Hints:
Strand 4 and strand 5 (67-68) form a beta hairpin. By secondary structure, this protein is α/β, with parallel strands linked by helices. It contains ten helices and ten strands. The chain folds into two domains: 1-88 and 168-247, Rossmann fold, CATH 3.40.50; 89-164, no CATH class. The strands form two sheets. The protein has a six-stranded mixed β-sheet, with helices on both faces. The protein has a four-stranded antiparallel β-sheet with strand order 2-1-4-5, with helices on one face. The relative contact order is 0.18. Helix content is 36%, strand content 25%. Residues 15, 18, 20, 38, 40-46 line the site of adenosine-5'-diphosphate (ADP).
Amino acid sequence: MSDVILAAENLTKEFKGFVAVDGVNLRVRRGQIHALIGPNGAGKTTCFNLLTKFLPPTRGTITYDGKDITAMSSADIARLGLVRSFQISAVFPHLTALENVRIALQRRRGDSFDFWRSQKILSRFDEEARGLLAEVGLSEFTNTAASELSYGRKRALEIATTLALNPEMLLLDEPMAGMAQADVERITALIKRISANRTILMVEHNLSVVATLSNTITVLARGKVLAEGDYATVSQDPRVVEAYIGA
Ligand code: ADP
């Protein structure tokens, strides 16, 4: 089994001649937390959308677990085990945390969601759903409506519904966006915990979170990879400092 789980080769995206992502080579190693950072406009979101198949690349290839996934849909790659958080699983505000996770588990089997399906069928997934809620620290909110949860706990619930798909690799788009400090700490601990047996690639603006969590960081600037390494290495790289200051 290769050490590299996700690889991008010469990944390029042009928008009407403007090159937003320019020949990016990326290797995410199995079991790591890998962060994609860079100043505003660096191409992080575009790169993330290419990797998660929300956008087709202009050039380049993407390989997951040795398979060329360049032409696959996001639903196809989810079936291979590469899942973007919040991709498939919307959280239903009026349903409880438990009901939301049960529905996500039911959808994993490929059944389309039928709101009127009897609770009896969904209750088959009860034990597994409770296990996932425990994994994300929401056991005491099992019967709380999603709409009543704090922002950070709602995010934890979204992560639980994503974990219901049993991903081998998770792609997280700014998991800390808009969060209060207490929630940032809770979600940081949660990401650390779920990374124990999964690979994670995230785009994240909060650099102290990136420093705490990441094994490897890729810094993008003007669509290209500017630097790569652990936090100590990239944060001391004068080109990185300049890119952030000059942005
Ligand atoms: P980041 O996430 O690092 O802030 P983005 O990937 O959002 O950067 O954007 C990179 C560059 O590509 C920006 O200059 C942005 O204006 C441009 N861009 C992104 N999406 C589009 C689009 N759909 N059409 C045209 N330009 C775009």
